Amino acid sequence: MNITRRTIADCWDLIIPFIRRTPVLDIEIPGLDNPVSLKLEYLQHAGSFKTRGAFANMLGTKLPKAGVAAASGGNHGAAVAYAASQLGIKAHIFVPEIASPAKISKIRKLGADITIAGKTYADVVGSCDDYCLQTGAVPIHAYDSPDTLTGQATMAAEFETQMLDGVDTVLMAVGGGGLIGGAAAWYRGSVKLIGVETEKCATMQKALTAGKPVTITASGIAADSLGAARIGSLSFPLARQFVDHVCLVDDDDILVAQKWLWENVRILSEPGGAAAFAAILSGKYTPQPLERLGIIICGANSSAVTL
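^ that's the sequence the OP posted. Answer follows.
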């Protein structure tokens, strides 16, 4: 499937009755003269951008009685559970032991069956595949399928319509690459696109350095959302062509960013959701004078107690 602006626009038309048009917040950061706009995608149904891809996979497709299944660090599972609940479809979600209690609780509350097994996201993919073979359920990939990528791309399409004065640079966190791959397919070089990963989850950065997807062992504070072991095969060529570069932050940068977002704008972001903002706040990405920045706050399946 060739993912184009036309196919992305068609997907947006398909899913828009089921998703939220998430708002944009203009903020000022002390010591930084650049205009900064936060795309508050954490306000999406089920707490992250992943809901777009979940609906893109399920709508317009006849699904079996066994329903759907997904392997997930948490956010994709919550999104699939939400979409399934809205469409009256059975869902079974497989999550690793590192999934946050907040995400596990959300999946359960949304009515999906859940299996917790394995230490990482990579560990539960096989369990999900086995379940689908045994039951006939349709697997919904967290980031490496055309429908998922196209659904996530609608976030960029929506953001573009909201930025009437335009934006020069858009920063977003990278896990398996579904969000940034979709954004790359939409923008196609019209903005500078910056991926942000943690040093312990540098899946995209290592792939771009090697010139091909490579397998890593992810760990650290954001591993439950950014901890894909290998960048998506669909996202990688798009990133290589349209992503300017990947910026790395450390776990402490993310903790500081989470605290700043809560104390200054009352955004309760999960670690992965705050990664892109951490790149600016920490100085790991230094914008040029007057460079207009768009930052995607992509997920908030955390808890106030944890923060």
